[in-house]
Amino acid sequence: MEYVLETNAITKRYRGFTALSGLTMRIPKGSIYGFVGRNGAGKTTLIRVICGLQEPTDGSYTLWSVKNTDAAILRCRRRMGAVVETPAIYPEMTARDNIRQQYRVLGLPSDDGIDALLHLVGLGDTGRKKAGDFSLGMRQRLGIAVALAGDPDFLVLDEPAAGLDPRGREEILGGIRSYQRRRGSSVVIVSHSMEDMARYSDEIIVMDHAKVKMQGTTREIFERADELVSVGLDVPQITEVMNLLRSRGLPVRNGIYTVDDARDEILRLLGRKVPGGEK
User: Model pTM?
Assistant: First the structure.
């Protein structure tokens, strides 16, 4: 199996504080990985390290099998797109000019694809409006468009749906998933929303106290509800609702983690045809 990222006992210490502690994990090519954990678990520090914004105190990592101390790691990072904490945008520029500037940084010869990126993130009609006048959600959308410039093979997104309403979350996260499926790229999404993780992630890494606590498929992780609770997390709210219905005597199946799954299960119980499936 080909891995886009492998970490080997990464540790990151600050003065009197350990943000990452001997962290070892692998992310295979072509998957959407969700990173979850309480504030301070080490998620953003890990992203900053693999994006080259900080160096590990101890340990190492590879991108496409290239070690972080190898000079070739710089070429590997040009295959990445990232939004880390706050979107890196130029407030005095329009959305289009922000993306054009990223094209220049990447050495792309033309503006081909900029319109498609703007429409993908819902900013196709912003015209000459400066990014500094954008709402928080619009700035988040622009940051994602900039990260997608150049069709990266590895996309790293820290809270990509921050500042977005429910419809906006679905548009952006659904667009990211469509991009990943189309390109076969690898995506890491950091989020506090277990609902988003259930709907959009293939696998989940749970971090706690600077270490990886759990790693597995989305279903495998949510089946370990007691362990999630022990690290201050929980299963999606819709799962709790369906579990409550089961406790009241309804023959609800286990393993309901998304609203779509819950809808299909309720239709099944009512004896109605499930969209795309059997009764």
Answer: 0.90
